[in-house]
Amino acid sequence: MRRPSLTTLRATGALTAALALALTACGGDADPKSGGELAGTTVTVAGVWTGGEQKNFKKVLDAFSAKTGAKTVFVPSGDNVSTFVGSKIEGGNAPEVVLVPQVGVLRQFAEAGWLTPLSEKTATTAAGNLAPVWKEYGTVDGAYYGLYFKAAHKSTVWYAPDALEQAGVAEPKSWDELLASGRTLADSGRPAFAVAGEDGWTLTDWFENVYLSQAGPEKYDLLARHELKWTDPSVVTALTTLAEVFEDERLVAGGAAEALRTDFPGSVEKVFGPEPKAALVYEGDFVGGVARDEFGRKPGEDAKFFPFPPVGSGKAPVVSGGDAAVVLKDAKNADAGMRLLEFLATPEAAEVWAGAGGFLSPNKDVKPEAYADDTARATAASLVAAGDTVRFDMSDQAPAAFGGTKGAGEWKLLQDFLRDPSDPKRTAAALEAAAAKAYGN
């Protein structure tokens, strides 16, 4: 599942969300001071971003306004993008552009007839600087709707360098080395992993990395489309491999019980906070931003990462998430919205946010020096170098009932598996039953 922003994770209640919506919609919008081809036109953009992410995206919108003369307004959608957009369309107030964080939601929008295909200019620009896999994830029934602008690298393991130095271990290069290093870390006084089991989406990411490496991209794609059953032996094998971590208290700080009480920000705090309780935290490149912003760590210095290691004879996985920009055909200024997507397809747009930090682009033409630090440069280079071997977060491709609902589907079943990983076959059967119901087959 897509990683919610830290602000979203910590927000509580509908009142908080409503206040945030009102405050954001009223202030800080990009309003050009000079004329241009779109002078007098307003482009409204909706997305899940809050806090620093929203602030930095507004810098991109400001650059678009400076080029075109358009006024831009960003409105936070909340995590349930589908419900938000549906209500706006029904009320005759559709935003021009929506940043969609899930492949499944993009497909839902396209099948509902809400979207306008990308312009020829946007599609041509994207074809020149994005790996074909990104077009595949933005395409529904042969029509190219979604331009991937922001990506996440979800195959990074972050660590506290002092913990590895104290234990005398190096960055592991394989799954077996990872387990051995983790046990050595525990023996030296600090358990290996802070696991954010309270947030089921982190557990889906664990599974996806193991499965992609072990089973390979072809089976990964089949499972993501539910053309392969979750009872397939490859799934049982991956769950059995994952159980090697979940069942070992030297590898999971505090054991399963504590992990199930730990949310994503809490897992980062356990490694990089003032009172460290673990040496490693697996999640995406965004861990570095939380370590920096919340705990004063410097990515690349006292907060480092290594690639998620290959499992068995497989290759190192590169699992990604991302936000696709789409244009709603019922919006008042849909043509101006498409003009924004033409801009977002360029490296110029990506480099605005890259310089501000907390951002990775799948665009191969973004200059490495545009990124704010060496860690961002390294993760971006790894993502781009993976080319068509990148695979989008599997749970984000699934119907929300299976891959994106708290307390249900894959999230809950993997939490149950963390609590008791003794029977991978039973878990695989439960996953298949839930998937079949959600996919309707």
UniProtKB/TrEMBL annotation:
Signal peptide location in the record? 1-30
What residues form the membrane-spanning segments? none
Q: Which InterPro entries match?
A: Bact_solute-bd_prot1, SBP
Q: Which UniProt keywords apply?
A: Signal, Transport
| One of the Pfam families matching this protein, by short name | SBP_bac_1
Query: What does the sequence similarity comment in the record state about its family?
Result: Belongs to the bacterial solute-binding protein 1 family.
What is the protein's name according to its record?
Answer: Sugar ABC transporter substrate-binding protein
